Amino acid sequence: MFWAGIWLFYLAYPLLEGWRRRDTVAGWLGIALLAVFVVLYLSVFARHRRRDLLSAAVRQTARRGIAEVVVLAALTVAICACIGQAGTVCAVYLAVVAMFVFPSAVGWPVAVVAGVGAYLATIVIPGWDHDPSILFGVLVASLAVWGVRTAIARNAALFTARQENARLAVANERNRFSRDLHDILGHSLTVITVKAELAGRLIDVDPERAREEIADLENLSRSALGDVRRAVEGYREMTLGHELARARGALEAAQIRAVVPPVADEVDGDLQELFAWSVREGVTNVIRHSGARRCEIALGMNRVAISDDGHGRADGDADHGHGLLGLRERAASHGAVVVTTSDESGFVLEVVARAAAVPGRPR
Q1: Which residues of 7-44 are buried (b: 16+ CB within 10 A; e: fewer)?
Q2: Residue 24 gets which letter from DSSP?
């Protein structure tokens, strides 16, 4: 409003001209019309600036915008009729309003008509001085307002884009944390459940072994708690060697024969963490869902495969579930793909990096 109001200083010239004619009705009428013009100009400017800055939902209708411009044009003509050539300065403000109210494709023609009309009036009306500066003033003011509107629109678009980027960043971080928490607790709780069941079966027939399993339960729960804390802090790191060892222990606790490589040295260093997550997810699914008696983990430089001899999965089930969806997201971030195969002989989960050809099943 300050930016719009400060330029009203140039209306002092027609105001003084009206005051100079205060001994006539036309002079007082010109002053009154000038006051109405100022109020309408500021109100229109404020409304349409609010529209541009806040939301497209606050837009005025085209009919109302036309009415506003027509009323200001009529006031400009009336002011000129009352106080003479000094009133032509109102054409500048008329053009400014047209540029704010209408799109540029409409505002520019209206502004040009206002400027040319005011200029022609100084030529054809007897007693008025030829004044090309009025046309120049209208065009320069229109250009300035067009620039302001363009800047406002771009700033609004930038603000909207930043809001959307922030929303997407929060959503991505929420998904990442949800995926990590699922992968961490899903595996740990599965192993804890299996060991608790085993300890329950052994407590009467082999108390010493049951105590060992219960001690393992305590260690697993502490480890899971540490994993969750590190995940919350954002400093958790996965190591493939550690996951292979955990996979072997979890499979043996579930009474599933484990065929697990002793080391993971041949795996590309950039893929170690991805393959660690893959082993964790694959082994967790074997223990939970497969009913298998044997599970094999095969490693290559750019691939890992977890296969079992269980009942497999229905075709429609292989691509669903939070775990596989999360694993696919992780793989995609490393340029890798997740491939699942299910038939009567069991289920295979493979993660293959760098678009390498998918080898045969590791049986």
Answers
A1: eeeebeebbebbeebeeeeebebbbebbeebbebbeeb
A2: S
Below-50 pLDDT ranges, the chain? 53-60, 235, 314-320, 357-363
Map residue 232 onto helix, strand or coil: helix
Q: Are 14 and 75 in contact (CB under 8 A)?
A: no
Six token digits for residue 155 = 């700033």
Q: Would you say 323 and 284 are in contact if contact means Cβ atoms under 8 Å apart?
A: yes
Tell me: the pLDDT tens digits for 181-220? 776 677 677 778 887 888 888 888 888 888 888 888 877 7
Backbone φ and ψ of 294, nearest 5°: -145, 140
* Token duo for residue 181: 């928490």
Q: Residue by residue, what is the 3-state secondary structure of 288-338?
A: HHHCCCEEEEEECCCEEEEEECCCCCCHHHCCCCHHHHHHHHHHHHCCEEE
pTM above 0.85, yes or no: no
User: Which residue, chain included where needed, has tokens 């809001």?
Assistant: 163
* Residue (of 118, 83, 76) closest to 97 by Cα position: 76
